[in-house]
Design a protein that fits this description.
Radius of gyration: 58 Å
Largest sheet: 6 strands, mixed
Number of strands: 8
CATH topology of one domain: Trna Endonuclease, Chain: A, domain 1
Helix content: 55-70%
Distance between the termini: 160 Å
Number of helices: 9
Strand content: 5-15%
Shape: elongated
CATH architecture of one domain: 3-Layer(aba) Sandwich
């Protein structure tokens, strides 16, 4: 139950939610009816002014044509007067001239009557055309009014059936249902899901991505905004541009689209698809009825450019292959040069070791040769050794060898 104060007597009285909703609906409907009546009056006045201007232009054209015919008739009458002035030679010539003049005048009058009849026919044709144009304009006007009224009633009923907390969610569900109804026929390879990744601190409502042969060629970040009519603090569409652009860049989407029912009286947003890329790149604002046409428009444009993207990717891949080939060639050259340098160093080390070994062997050879000479001298000395020489300075040893010799 809610308390309401009467603005006249100041008395407080209670009313349930249904009664309160009816009062709000009555006020909103009255305001809407007044606004609709004002706009209908403006359109009727504009239509009457257009019709009045068209009639004035037709009447002006008719007056100019009649004036031109009067000028031509005056010229003919002047020529007849000149002929009559020249007649004076004889009655026969005068009668002939008069007859000729009368005949010419009758002919001219007949031509004038024919011209008048033709002009009247043209005027009747113009009037018929004007009436048809007026009827067509009226029918177009009535069709536009009917279409606009139907859309207004639809979204008015759409809002009226929602509670305050469900308004935004219902717009999301409305767009999701629209997409899913065409998903398998129009977007069989597309991804269209809620953006549930809030790792960066914020998230959009939906992300659309479409693929061709496994290659992504279009991506759109969607944000849906709506609010109840009785909301005191009204938001504007541009209040959400900055955050939507941030979400688009963080989720690596190409386009950003705000689907909005805000600012319902703003004619700019009511005309159709509004490009706001002068504030944020690749961003658009649309009403819900343009949700599917917007996806189709962006998708077809991206699909047309997919071939050029693929050709560009082939060129990029070729350039990458050339770059890898050059990198591989440079790595091979560096590795070969390093291996050659290491092998050269090892060859030189081996040669140096061989030279050292040769020098060592040469010294060993010389030592062995010197040892051979020493052994030869020792051998010569050994051959020259005898007991006599050995016992020369040892008489006792000599005596022993002599004694052993005698015993034998």
């Amino acid at each position: 139950m809610q308390e309401i104060k009467c603005p006249n007597c100041g008395e407080l009285f209670q009313i349930d939610e249904s009664g309160y909703a009816q009062i709000v609906s009555q006020v909103r409907d009255n305001e809407f009816a007044k606004e609709l009546e004002r706009r209908e009056k403006e359109l009727n006045e504009k239509h009457e002014n257009d019709v009045r201007l068209a009639r004035m232009e037709q009447e002006k054209a008719q007056a100019e044509q009649l004036s031109q015919k009067d000028v031509e008739l005056a010229e003919k009458e002047r020529q007849i007067a000149e002929l009559q002035a020249k007649l004076g030679a004889s009655e026969t010539e005068k009668a002939l001239a008069v007859a000729q003049a009368i005949s010419g005048k009758e002919k001219e009058l007949s031509e004038k009557e024919s011209a008048i009849v033709k002009l009247q026919g043209e005027l009747e044709s113009e009037e018929t055309k004007r009436l048809l144009d007026e009827k067509s304009l009226k029918e177009q006007y009535e069709a536009k009014i009917k279409s606009k009224d139907e859309q207004i009633e639809y979204y008015k009923d759409f809002k009226a059936r929602q509670s305050t907390k469900m308004v935004g969610e219902s717009l999301e569900q409305h767009c999701q249902i629209q997409f899913n109804s065409l998903r398998m026929t129009a977007f069989p390879n597309a991804y269209f899901e809620k953006d549930n990744d809030a790792a960066t601190g914020s998230k959009g409502d939906f992300i659309f991505r479409d693929y061709e042969n496994g290659t992504e060629f279009i991506s759109i970040m969607f944000e849906m905004k709506n609010e109840a009519d009785e909301t005191k603090t009204k938001h504007k569409n541009e209040d959400f541009f900055k955050e939507l652009d941030k979400d688009r860049r963080e989720k690596k989407c190409e386009y950003a689209v705000l689907v909005s029912l805000l600012e319902s009286d703003n004619e700019l947003y009511n005309t159709g698809i509004v490009d706001v890329s002068y504030k944020y790149p690749k961003m658009y604002v649309i009403r819900p009825q343009f949700f599917i046409p917007m996806i189709t428009l962006l998708r077809n444009a991206a699909l047309n450019s997919l071939q050029y993207q693929q050709e560009l990717q082939v060129v990029k891949n070729q350039q990458i292959d050339i770059l890898h080939f050059e990198e591989n060639m440079a790595a091979f050259k560096d590795a070969f040069a390093r291996n050659y340098r290491l092998a050269s160093e090892r060859f030189q080390t081996a040669i140096d070791e061989i030279d050292k070994t040769i020098l060592h062997l040469q010294k060993t050879k010389e030592a062995l040769l010197r040892s051979k000479d020493n052994l030869r001298l020792a051998n010569n000395k050994l051959e020259d050794v005898s007991i006599k020489k050995l016992t020369k300075n040892a008489p006792s040893v000599k005596a022993m060898f002599d004694e052993l010799h005698n015993e034998d």
